[in-house]
Amino acid sequence: MDLSKLKKRPSYPFETIAVAISFSPSCQSLLAEAKRLSDVLGASLLLLHIGDQTPEKEQKLDSIMDTVGVDPKRSRVIWMEGDPVDTILKLCKLNIVDLLVLGALEKENILKFYLGSIARNISRKAKCSVLLLTNPSDEPMKLKKIVVNGVENPKTIHTINTSLYLAKHLKVKDLTIVKEVDISGIAMAIADNTTAPQTKEIKKNITDESEETLQMIIDKCDIGEINVTDKIIKGKPGYAISKFAKDKRADLLVINSPDTHLNVFDRIFTHDIEYILADLPCNVLIIHSRV
Amino acid sequence: MIKLAHNELIVFLLSISAMLIISRIFAELGKKLKLPVVMGELIVGIILGPTILGMLYPDIFNYLFPRTGNIPIALDGIFSLSVIMLLFVAGMEVQLSLVLKQGKVAVYTSLFSMVIPFFTGFAVAWFFPEIFSISNEHGPKLLFALFFGTALSISALPVIARILMDMNLFKTNIGMVIIASAMFNDLLGWLIFSFVLSLTHTNDGEHLSLWYTIIYIIGFGLFMLTIGKKIIDKTLPWMQTKLSWPGGVLSISLGICLLSAAFTEAINIHAILGAFIAGIAFGDSVHLREQAREIIHQFVTNFFAPLFFVSIGLKINFIENFDPVIVSIVLVLAFVGKVLGATIGARLGGMSKNHSLAVGFGMNARGAMEIILGTLALNAGLISKPIFVALVIMALVTSLTSGPLMKKFID
């Protein structure tokens, strides 16, 4: 497989959007959302079905595509048999997919979470950006509030810029960039010999430093006309932003792709992203910036 | 039921108040000189104990800290409770996800900073037991060698956290690598130490086979860190909203700690492991409010910790048991093993030479954890008083030198 075209490919614009078709009850809505995104962003659409290709399925897919209004000239359908996760990942790489759209349950039972569902396993391993839609609808998705993770990481600037690109095209007004500060270790360090004002000052310094760091990241981004606010929240990374997005009733949470290959240990000793995947607070976009 | 007599109760209360008040005064004085609090507490123990008060005013010493009657039993109960609580809060700060998140560099640093000092200590104790006046018989020699290796490989997370915070490195990349590696060291160190302690039960008729001990320790750890952690995580929000705040969460968390400690003690693994693992399961919960965490820390660090560390000086005459040869050997081995191990690990993990050395010296701080480990080993009859004194001195020297030596390699 020649992956040279994928390397250093920018995280946006999304030129090819793929959607995984499973013929589930939400299949039509999922395709409708993917189609709208591809129209707005001017991207070509790739429909992937992992399973056997039967005349009944072909007929059903034609009917769904027709209902949704997918233009056959700007789309392609790929049928392939194999392991769903590996095959989808392989097809995305081969077809230089920029964004993969998947339907996902908000929450899964504990066994499925540890074993890993198809959508979540793809999210953990994908070499392209992944959009997990919790409640796809036939009606156009109303994106009003986007929350973006502003964690200190080289990938973050690409994630924020991609979010801004999406916000511009989807005419989103409210974009909040959030930095989480985990102060759990501070309790241990200050327990034995710190006065109340010193404790307050230590905590304030940590918050101030985080604000400065976040501002430095935002300053490097191409904000343009969008109204961007920044926010520092305290709590365990991953869980805190997920809760913030839920409380704010955000429509989309945008995060970096994981730095390492996640495995079952990352679910037992919960990795930041696993808090989000365990209980999706809203639609989630994982940006793979390929840096 | 045996009760403390009227006079005994007065003496008991006086001794506890003396330990708390004087150790606080020394902690505040030590703060001005930037010395660790534990050092002040140990000095108070030395002053109140047989080393100074016992020598100068034996009547006052014997009145305040009698060696017979019900008072020593009551005090021993408090000291046992203290060590369990200290291990609980130590566990609360262990976040295994942080080790995984820091990736290769943290895994290499923690493994090398465990393996090299462990084998250095084990080899010296195994091949030269006479230095430590240990019998050359296989059994005692093996137990001591295992303990000595563990004692050299453990780190002191709270001391390291404090040093990093003072140096403004707590949230930096280098700080996170040190913290994550120290967490992993602590977990492995206490697991190994519990295993060694459980082997000391050999002669009391409650001996578990080696494999049962290992299976119990691993089984208990896995259960608490998966199912136990999930149960705590699910019930904490209820505890924090439906029960009195913060009283509800405090009593339940400390209750779970003691329950877990009782369980591990009952299956012949030391109570400290139960408390430590319960601490990890509790502290790792995303629902544990910061205020609750702080209150537990404050309560344990400022009530139980002074009593425990002062009690060390009460039991041992530091001058009589000071052996310069043992102290020098322990110090050299502790520095060489830990600094070398952590530096090699960090370097293999991809850090620069200077930052790797900074990680090496940062990980070298042993502090209170080493003293707790030594005390438990002394109580179990694993080590002699001179070795214990050497471990205490090593813990203090490594804690005091860690920050200044780290500074030399950062920018």
Key features of this structure:
heterodimer, A: 291 residues, alpha/beta, Rossmann fold, 2 domains, 10-stranded mixed beta sheet, 11 helices, globular, B: 411 residues, mainly alpha, Na+/H+ antiporter like fold, 18 helices
Description:
- The complex is a heterodimer of chains A (291) and B (411).
- Chain A is α/β, with parallel strands linked by helices and 291 residues long.
- Chain A has 2 domains: 1-139, Rossmann fold (3-Layer(aba) Sandwich), CATH 3.40.50; 142-283, HUPs (Rossmann fold).
- Chain A is 42% helix and 20% strand.
- Chain A has a 10-stranded mixed sheet with strand order 3-2-1-4-5-10-9-6-7-8, sandwiched between helices.
- Chain B is mostly helical.
- Chain B folds into 2 domains: 6-73, no CATH class; 79-407, Na+/H+ antiporter like fold (Up-down Bundle), CATH 1.20.1530.20.
- The mean pLDDT of chain B is 87.
- The chains are: A alpha/beta (291), B mainly alpha (411).
- Chains A and B meet through helix 7, helix 8 and helix 10 of A and helix 1, helix 6, helix 9, helix 11 and helix 14 of B.
Short description:
The complex is a heterodimer of chains A (291) and B (411). Chain A is α/β, with parallel strands linked by helices and 291 residues long. In chain A, 42% of the residues lie in helices and 20% in strands.
